[in-house]
Structures are given as structure tokens and as C-alpha cells.
Amino acid sequence: MPNLYSKSFNDPDEVKAPEKTNAAVVKLGNIAASRIELQPGWKWSECVKPVVGGHSCQAGHVGVVVQGTMKVVHDDGSELQVSAGEAYYFAPGHDGWVVGDETFIGYEFVEGGKDFGPWKTS
User: Fold this and answer.
1) Rounded CA gap, 31 and 21, in Å?
2) HEC letters along 20-42
3) Which among 41, 37, 10 has a CA at the least distance from the CA of 26?
4) How far apart (Å, rounded) are the C-alpha atoms in residues 55 and 7?
5) Which of 10, 19, 28, 56 minimizes the number of CB atoms within 10 Å of its CB?
6) Domain boundaries, the chain
7) Phi (first) and psi of residue 47, to 5 degrees
8) What whole-number distance in Å separates Cα of residue 40 and Cα of residue 56?
9) Between the CA of residue 75 and those of 22, 40, 67, 79, 111, what are the distances in Å?
10) CA-to-CA separations, 122 to 18, 52, 91, in angstroms, rounded
11) What is the C-alpha separation between 48 and 23, in angstroms, rounded?
12) Could you tell me the sign of the dihedral formed by the alpha carbons of 94, 64, 39, 17, in that order?
């Protein structure tokens, strides 16, 4: 693998598109980078849970919000709201939803490339 390279989210390695969701994933060695677009009305427990199952989202997320706002509630009861210009970490075991009428756009990065976007893959 070269020391310097890039990939475009316009030509992703993988796309995930459950209801109101579009996640374009590019794999950069051992890192998965995702561009996530979540439409107004998106909620993990309503749009993604039917596809992946489970009580709550079991993926960890490290990312940056470019547009919009999301509220996240962890299984332990803690809550967080993130908006454009903020970086975030969500531990496994949470639900989240788009707040307001603006599409949420964020970029997430995961080492190992197995957990990405608003779901966990095997």
C-alpha cells in the first residue's frame, strides 16, 4: 500500500442505506471512514434497529458533525446533543435521532473497519 493515497466518498467501497439513512464508506487500510447523511425524522431505533436488531446501537462512534443536530441517549441514561462544528464519541449502547428539519451530515472514523455508521456489522 502506498504511503499517501485518498479515496472519494463519491465512489465508496460500501454504501448502507436503511430508511432515511445514507452512509458511504471508504476503507483506508485498517480505518473505515464514513460520510453519514441522516434525514429529518431519522431515529436509530426506528430506521436501523429493524435491520440489525438489538436493544440499542452497539457500535462505538467517533466523528465530526458538518451539518445538522443529533441527540443521543445512552442506555445508562446520559444524554448529549451534537451540532455542526462539534466532534463526538458515542459509546456502544445508545439510541440517537436527528433534531429539527435539517439533514444531519457527519464523518466517522473507525479503526479495524468493522463498526461504522449507525450500526455494527459482523
Assistant:
1) 21
2) CEEEEEEEECCEEEEEEEECCCC
3) 10
4) 34
5) 10
6) 14-120
7) -100, -35
8) 20
9) 25, 23, 25, 9, 24
10) 17, 10, 18
11) 12
12) negative
Q: Considering the domain 14-120, what is its CATH architecture?
A: Sandwich (2.60)
The tens place of each residue's pLDDT in the chain, 122 residues long, gives: 789 999 999 999 999 999 999 999 999 999 999 999 999 999 999 999 999 999 999 999 999 999 999 999 999 999 999 999 999 999 999 999 999 999 999 999 998 745 444 555 43
Name which of 61, 71, 64 is nearest 100 in CA terms: 71
Q: Which residues of 80-103 are buried (b: 16+ CB within 10 A; e: fewer)?
A: eebeeeeebebeeebbbbbeeeee
